[in-house]
Amino acid sequence: MEHSGGVEEKRRWVRRNVNFLVRLIFPSHGLREVQSANFRMLDLSEGGAALYVGSFSGRPDYFYLQFGDDKSELVSCYLVQRTQHALSCRFTSPLPTAQIDAIIAQKEMDLTIESLFSETKEDLVDNFLGSFVT
Questions:
Q1: Fewer beta carbons within 10 Å, N or C terminal of the chain?
Q2: What pTM did the predictor assign?
């Protein structure tokens, strides 16, 4: 597999380009506190992921990713690379391909439903406001 500049890329898993929010949960002040923040996931594979974190300065070495709501499973991760605006992590234990596919499918469905709802909401507001203009 070729990577930019002709260097061979040596990845065990295929990265899937994605674009959805995930929650990063990490300890702070030793283990006395737990903090969380939502970030945009850029790619995902069975072995890890890349996240856009912008100017977030609290980039921990060990953390959990949560792909769903507050009750969804936590995936244990460790940092493998930092750049100015992104971080790459490795999962402590690889996730099965079926689980990766299910996460992506669920996130795509969530985004579709959200976009349909927001369009409907805007239409309702426009219709409501239009009813006052004659």
A1: C
A2: 0.75
DSSP letters, 5-23, are GGPBP--SS--EEEEEEEE
- Give the start-to-end residue ranges of the domains of the chain: 4-130
Cα distance between residue 118 and residue 34, in whole Å:
32
Rounded Cα gap, residues 70 and 74, in angstroms: 9
CATH of 4-130, one of 3.90.1720.10, 1.10.10.10, 2.40.10.220, 3.40.50.2000: 2.40.10.220
Q: What is the pLDDT of residues 63-87, one digit of tens each?
A: 999 998 888 899 999 999 999 999 9
Cα–Cα distance between 58 and 41 in angstroms, integer? 17
